[in-house]
Design brief:
Length: about 290
């Protein structure tokens, strides 16, 4: 017993400097990524899922981005809402952490449109769209979803642009780092009519994650929601006011939808029905799904 205790103490003493060094290096890398722009590579990992089989995923090596692990639980979360062979849309797909599980739910016979106007995350999204071609069908699209087609500023609080949002103003709440080249916004309904008209009747699911811009997107796709009644997942951004939260709730509730808070994109995640607009203030920053009554 004493030998084991001595070994544990020795291991801790020897490893402590290495752990401290790794921590300091990671801290420095994050600080640098926040202040100075740099292109970061990706690493393709393989995940063995009990039902979906082998899944490849390109993890972005940006120090500000957490490593993504594709799990069967996440795929099963989306399977509750996305039938195989249907159309699903990921607005704000980032590198594809939700796009890929959504596509595994829709299957090779379905289609997932992954939208993200940020060119740095879109580069990784394109890679992930090209993987798992036997089991998924992802089309990456470098656009923001807006009420009217046009060009917009894209800004971030981080120089490495791991996330951010769009605005008509160069100086906006999304941060002090702005892309030199404007990004393109499109009206989703018109875009689908022009390019995916044969798929719109199969629209089952729309996920929105756009740094507080979600309610504006819901307004812009109002007719699409009215006609096809897809399940909608959106984010209640932490900085939204009570009035904005009410507007977000009313935008879907008034269309005959019920809203539910959920903890995470996992199969057995805790959920709670949001009974009224005041219920949107119970959590500071959270995701919810809305389904037709």
């Amino acid at each position: 017993m004493y030998e084991n205790i001595s070994l544990s103490i020795y291991t801790f003493v020897v490893n402590k400097p290495l752990m401290l060094l790794r921590y300091l290096k990671a801290t420095f890398a994050r600080k640098k990524a926040r202040r100075f722009f740099s292109e970061y590579p990706y690493e393709i990992e393989r995940f063995e899922l009990p039902e979906s089989g082998t899944v490849e995923f390109a993890n972005w090596k940006n120090p500000l981005v957490s490593r993504i692990e594709i799990t069967q639980s996440t795929v099963n979360f989306f399977r509750k809402f996305i039938p195989a062979g249907s159309l699903a849309i990921d607005i704000g797909g980032n590198i594809g952490d939700t796009t890929v599980p959504m596509a595994l739910a829709a299957g090779r016979s379905g289609i997932v449109l992954g939208f993200d106007p940020n060119p740095h995350v879109f580069r990784i999204l394109e890679v992930n769209a090209g993987l798992n071609r036997n089991t998924t069908n992802i089309i990456p699209l470098p656009f923001a979803i807006t009420d009217e087609d046009g060009d917009f500023y894209y800004a971030s609080s981080e120089a490495s642009f791991s996330n951010g949002g769009i605005s008509t103003e160069q100086n906006n709440r999304h941060g002090s780092f702005t892309l030199q080249q404007k990004i393109q916004g499109i009206n989703l309904e018109r875009y689908l009519q022009k390019n995916y008209a044969s798929w719109t009747d199969k629209l089952s699911f729309i996920k929105i994650d756009t740094e507080g811009y979600d309610k504006e997107i819901i307004k812009s796709i109002s007719a699409l929601i009215d006609k096809h009644k897809p399940v909608v997942v959106a984010e209640c951004f932490g900085k939204l006011t009570k009035e904005e939260r009410k507007e977000l709730f009313d935008g879907l509730s008034n269309k005959g939808y019920e809203l539910y808070y959920f903890g995470d994109f996992e199969e057995n995640t805790p959920t709670e029905k949001i009974l009224d607009a005041a219920g949107m203030n119970k959590w500071e920053h959270f995701n919810f799904y809305a389904k037709p009554r």
